[in-house]
Amino acid sequence: MHPAMTHELARIKQAELLQYAERERRVRAAGSSGPRSIDAVAMSARIQRTLLRLGHALRGAPAGATA
């Protein structure tokens, strides 16, 4: 293969790689600013703790007191 042709193919491949890298950067940037999934187990634990404290507060017992 002619050296000029090899150089041209390498230049085209490098341009494709740069375009691909730019697209990947944009995809990562868009994904990080979007909504995230919810961890149901952690959310459930927080809700249970909140409801437990709310129940104690409504009954007049301190939050740390156990029945």
**Assembly type:** single chain
Low-confidence stretches: none
The major beta sheet can be summarized as: none
Tally the beta strands.
0
Describe the structure in brief.
By secondary structure, this protein is mainly α. It has helices spanning 3-33, 40-59. It is rod-shaped, with a radius of gyration of 29 Å.
How would you describe this protein?
The mean pLDDT is 83. The radius of gyration is 29 Å and the shape is rod-shaped. With 67 residues, it is an all-alpha fold. It contains 2 helices and no strands. The longest helix is centred in the first third of the chain and has 31 residues.
Structural descriptors:
67 residues, mainly alpha, 2 helices, rod-shaped
Fold blueprint:
Blueprint: H1 3-33, H2 40-59
